Amino acid sequence: MEHDLGMEKVNRLLWRLSVPAILGMLSSAIFNIVDRIFVGKINPYALTAVGITMPIQILQMAFVLLIGIGSSALISLKLGEGEKEEAEDLLYLASKYIIGFLIVFAAIFLVFLNPILTGLGISEEVLPYAKEYIVIIIVGSIIGIPGYCLNNSLRSIGQAKTSMKIIIVTSIMNMILDPILIFGFDLGIKGAAIGTVLSQMTLTIYVYYIFLTRQDFMIHLKKRQVKKERELAKALIKMGSPSFFVQILATGVNLYMNTSLLHYGTDLDVAAVTIISSIFSFYHMVVTGIVQGNNAICGYNWGAKQYGRVRSSLLLSLLYAGILSTVLFLLVQFFPHGIVDLFTKQEELRDVAARGIRLYLAMLPLVGLQTISSQYYQAVGAARRSSALSFLRYGVIVVPAIMVFAPQYGVQGIYASNAISDGIASVIAIAYIIHEIRKLRQLELMF
Fold first, then answer.
1. Of the candidates 216, 226, 231, 402, which lies 20 to 30 Å from 47 by C-alpha distance?
2. What SS3 class is residue 225?
3. Of 119, 132, 112, 115, nearest to 50 (Cα)?
């Protein structure tokens, strides 16, 4: 194993697991951001097409996370309990389930393509771009996405550096392919989609190859007869359900927000929120990297009943996430135009996005703490609490807030609604995690 999750000093271990995960997640974020930067150079309608089709991708990702996060979290717990055979069973099941799902999802999407795009409220100017982009993305994901699903399991067995290297290489590949395909071959938005799919396919091929061939891994991917498939599948779904339901909720919220933006604003407002979401995703990927390092440590040590190590890792993760959130908040508040300029030089869109980002991310200092807190419960098997805390931030509050503030303040009310949701959900999550830290201290003394 690359790192001893049960023995190595927690602070050093958290850094060693989190930094590769952060770099890998950042590369993944850059992967998406570069797409949007180059797409934005085509024209604002192309950028709007990427943003307005996002609910489809979020819905697809819900099932990917159900399987990927659920299996990786459970693998960590099983390894902590010394159940290597069941950990390998879970890896095989994750591979089988994700491929089957992606085939079914793509088939349903293609059959109902036109009704789905019509239901998104896409304007005539944006529709051609949206159709070209999303069809390639969804069909290509059948081969492209399985690797991302299993990549979570690399981190769960302590192979964070391997995971990082794979993502960085394929992200660089995407950065190279985008300008070549979009502008060199004059493929436009289709070029962006093709570049993304080719990069994803490369990642998938490599992840499967190393899980099949690396003898130094704790678990390996191989076809096997799983004796307790129903029991393991049920546990996998339970562990992955928080991420799944959050993504399902996010699909609805994203769809509702896009509809509201079009109702109270224009296509440019959808493009502006696409830019803001890209900037937030860059930050969120860093926090997610910390989450993955923390969850690998917490899951393993919870299974091994080493509660002092769980507590130490959790406290350090909260500290690092809080510092990161505050730094980005200051950058957003003082240099909004400089950040937005990365995506567009179109003056009207630039001004709309720069004004909106300050309000949209006004509660950013608290968001990192909320993310660490809610995802921690998933790592230790408290899936329902993790789901509840995540739901608060990703839809339970924001949708009613939009209903109240958008009619009064228009698009600015939509931006404010996101900040209100972040603030309330974060305060509640922080209150829960303070109680959890006290409980861990008691368990530490008992064991």
1. 402
2. coil
3. 132
d(CA 317, CA 178): 35
| pLDDT at residue number 266 | 85
C-alpha 28: how far from chain center: 9
Q: What is the DSSP letter of 395?
A: I
Which residues, 6+ apart, have CB-to-CB distance to 259 below 8 Å?
A: 121
Enumerate residues 6+ apart whose C-beta is below 8 A from 113: 131, 135
Torsion of CA 99, 208, 36, 392, to 10 degrees: 60
End-to-end CA distance of the chain: 26
Residues 6+ positions from 399 with CB-CB distance below 8 Å: 252, 253, 256
> Cβ-count burial of 249 within 10 angstroms (0-12 exposed, 13-18 middle, 19+ buried)?
buried
CA distance 400 to 421: 10
Residue 177 has a CB neighbour count (10 Å cut-off) of: 20
| pLDDT score of 95 | 95
54-58 contacts: CB < 8 A, separation 24 or more? 54/254, 54/258, 54/274, 54/277, 55/120, 55/251, 55/252, 55/254, 55/255, 55/258, 56/109, 56/116, 56/120, 56/134, 56/138, 57/134, 57/137, 57/138, 58/247, 58/250, 58/251, 58/254
Residue 280 backbone dihedrals phi, psi, to 5 degrees: -65, -40
- DSSP, collapsed to helix, strand or coil, labels residue 104 as helix
Closest of 392, 374, 383, 368 to residue 436, by C-alpha: 374
**Whats the size of the chain, residue-wise?**
447
Interacting residues of 83 by C-beta distance below 8 A, sequence separation 6+? none
Which residue numbers in the chain have pLDDT < 50? 1-3
Q: What is the pLDDT of residues 129-154, one digit of tens each?
A: 999 999 999 999 999 999 988 887 88
Long-range contacts of 95-99 (CB under 8 A, 24+ apart): 95/146, 95/149, 95/150, 95/208, 95/221, 97/67, 97/233, 98/63, 98/64, 98/67, 98/68, 98/145, 98/146, 98/149, 98/150, 99/142, 99/146
The two structure tokens encoding residue 180: 């070549």
Q: What is the pLDDT of residue 402?
A: 95
Structure tokens at 313: 């890792």
Q: What is the pLDDT of residue 157?
A: 81
Contact 145, 204 (CB under 8 A): yes
pLDDT of residue 25: 66
